[in-house]
Amino acid sequence: MNSRQRRGVILLLLSVLCALGAFAGVISVINDVNSKVGPEVTAYRVKTEVAPYTALRPGQFEKVSMPRRWLSESAVTDLSAVTGKIAVTRLEKGSLLQDDMIVERPELEAGEQEIAIMIDSATGVAGKITPGDRVNIFATFAGKTERDADQSRIIVPAARVIDVGRLTPIDRRSEDRTSGPREAVPITFALSTKDAQRLAHAESFAEHVRLALLAKGGKSALRPGDSTYTLDEDKNR
The pTM is what? Predict the structure, then answer.
């Protein structure tokens, strides 16, 4: 082996040693990062914006993996935690789901049943009604004949709201009462059987169904004659 060949072999060996040293350095850095970052755990990120006070579904979230040490203690790591829950605030797309963002959906009391109706955003208390609120439910009925006065009635006083859905476009052009596309919100109430029947009847036959939000912690105390109203009552005063 001449001197040129020996130099070539030496350079090759040096290159191999440098490559091994670089590889060992990379492995050392990776191990150091892993030791600092720690093991990864599953968390959940909001896929699309979720409106406040709406019922939560697993499909609204996507799984992500993150180092445990980077997650807050309130981060949700088990998606079953959203079952039967509602959002207490607006959940922004891309945000990590936290325990303090969700609460239990209000429970039915003995003798109550759930009933939901679509409330026109123009005739409800748009954006102000939340689960747990109490509302008076008004319905307006046209007179049965031309001589009969139109009448407004409180069909259910102090109805308890247990869920508020998303604003939904509806088209009621096929009905005589309204025309053109409108927006409505599905609102679910916890009512007795009799009150649920009153509400179902009003939704089907009333000209309009409106909600009046009551003060927090307060209930409607109706005086005799307060539950119905006609314009003639003011004319006769």
Answer: 0.56
